[in-house]
Amino acid sequence: MLQKGPLHTRIIERFDDMSEQLQRAARHILEHPQEVALVSMRELARNADVQPSTMTRLAKFLGYSGYEDFRGEHADVIRVSTDGFVARALQRDEGAIDGEGLAYRMLQSLSVQIARLCETGTLSSLSTIADRLGKARRIYVLGLRSCHSVAWHFHYVMTLLGEKSVYLDGPAGTSGDALIRASADDVLLAISISPYSLQTLVLAEAAREKGMVIVAITDSEVSPLVTIAEHIVLFPAESQTFFHTLTPALAVSEVLCGLVAAQDRAAALEGLKQADRHLSSMNTYATTIPRRKI
User: Residue 85's pLDDT is what?
Assistant: First the structure.
């Protein structure tokens, strides 16, 4: 991510005043600051899916004389960023299309993204959020479209520990009905990445109007969930392919489950034992695996 200096702050503060095209360019720069120093303005614009002139307009909107002035301030990002060398390493074979090369870049990128979550600020946020989740009467879990897998994973693990989790995914457009009896004693855990699901934002706003604490797991400081949520965990979603990655978000989900369970180990173990007894009575899992004869 972009270094947390004056430029970073300026982009965040002025984001809501930007046009849709400027926001698209700004978002890309926030997520890929190294590109400003590594690639040409035309390539940066192409990667951001905007016209090159948009980059110039963004620079002037932020108070620079032009794009080169703006680019100059980004030069230090490569020199001081903790993953700057990795970013360059990932681009060393950019033209390669063989499976091993792409697999290497994808896995290397994921390892860097997971490592980012170990920063002090993120660890502190995770601890605070886990404490709030543990004290909640109910945890309503919301993740639509691509974020469904992350939300469902958190909900599934929490159901093994007890009855606090409520998953907001009802049929026939009834996903919001579960909030009917929600109150300020409850927490909404919402997961969303760009492009953000409108229904996720609608339900998050509805939960906030009920006085619920909103916890957001999202991909950017300019995510619309940031203005709604009381607690936020940011994760990098950029990928070496055409698709966003949700691996860091899944890691956040697993950490939160682990932290919540650790708050009351005795209760967590009892919940797991109860789940095991039920699953065993239902013959859910194979106890023996027959081996094929060769």
Answer: 40
pTM of this structure: 0.76
171 CB-near residues (< 8 Å, 6+ apart): none
Q: By the 8 A CB rule, do 30 and 74 touch?
A: no
CB 84 within 8 A of CB 77: yes
pLDDT tens figures, 141-200: 999 999 999 999 999 999 999 889 999 987 878 888 999 999 999 999 999 998 899 999
Residue 185 corresponds to which amino acid? D
Q: Which pLDDT band, with edges at 50, 70 and 90, does 75 fall under?
A: low
Q: How many CB atoms lie within 10 A of CB 42?
A: 11
Q: Measured between alpha carbons, how far apart are the two ends of the chain, in Å?
A: 53
Cα–Cα dist 220/120, whole Å: 18
Read off the tokens for 60: 């002037």
Q: Is residue 225 within 8 Å of residue 249, measured between CB atoms?
A: no
Q: Decide the pairing of beta strands 165-167 and 187-192.
A: unpaired
